[in-house]
Amino acid sequence: MKTLIVIVVLAFGLAASLNLENFEEYQKHFKKQYRTRAEAAHRASIFGRNLAQIREHNAAFERGEVSYKKGINQFTDQTQEEYLEAIHGLPKSDKGLKEKYPTDLEFVNFLRSKTNVPDEFSWINQGGVSSIKNQASCGSCTAFACTAAMDTCFWRASGYLFDDLSEQFLVDCANNHYFGEWGAFGCNGAWPQAYFDYLETVSGGRMQTEQSYPYTAADGRCRQTEQGWYTGARQTQWKNVFNADEEMVKSWVAEVGPVVTTIYASGEFGSYSGGVLNAYDCCNQSEDPSCSYQNNHAVAVVGYGREGGLDYWLVKNSWGDWWGDNGYIKVKRGTGHCGMFGHSASGPSQCA
Predict the structure, then answer these.
(1) Any catalytic annotation for residue 138?
(2) Domain limits, the chain
């Protein structure tokens, strides 16, 4: 415990000593490299405009006019258009695709039968969530979200939180695997269903370790080894529910484990740093049934609660711990905000 306290204090001291509002320090901290002085000046100009918007927004947050804060991160030197292009992680969606597959009614009825679901819950507080990772420039958000859910499932089965399952294993080895018409395409994005189905039908529920199959943030050939399998647990069952309602998902998170969903990671999402995201540039699935068709990112829901008068989902992201609230984001719950659960909810339902 003493060691943990020292590490936290040192980390806080380091953060306090940085002045990321200074563009040169920002550039150094995030290892930004620009090809020419003209490009550097252009990025400094964009950074300055975004910084002004962050300050203005946070002043409104302090006045209680908005529910979330903004902060400086790796995207602050990008335009909104560049940011949205950079974070792509889902293939294009056929608007009729999800209607072609039946929902697991037995699982849905099981979740709806739960009457004592707590008002607030967090797998982080239970000690079952692995550390924040960074997908870097590869569109591998779905691999990271699915692996986050597997981390918790394996922990529940074994009693040990193994923090080094390999996302690259899914990116490479499940490339071009399909669950029906929901496919996986490496750094060009993937649907969660394709990865969970791959684990069930191809790998025997097993995953490679990070040590044996390290992350490269690029597409590669499948290079799994027999010695590289994690042997502490395996996935024995997974579930997928299309058009999942949020009360049902609440039971799923509390009773079964983290849930993987797609989301529209809007411009407001990209600059989030605290509070509950209730973004003007996000639609609500409850008001617009086509809301989720603009989704461009996948995340793992690891809890839920209430803050500042708003119900929220606690979401684990894959953009490093300098993004958001130490790598997490709280998204308004109850309306399918930013398209959450508009496509489906997926996750391992049992590991052994």
Answers:
(1) no
(2) 2-66, 88-351
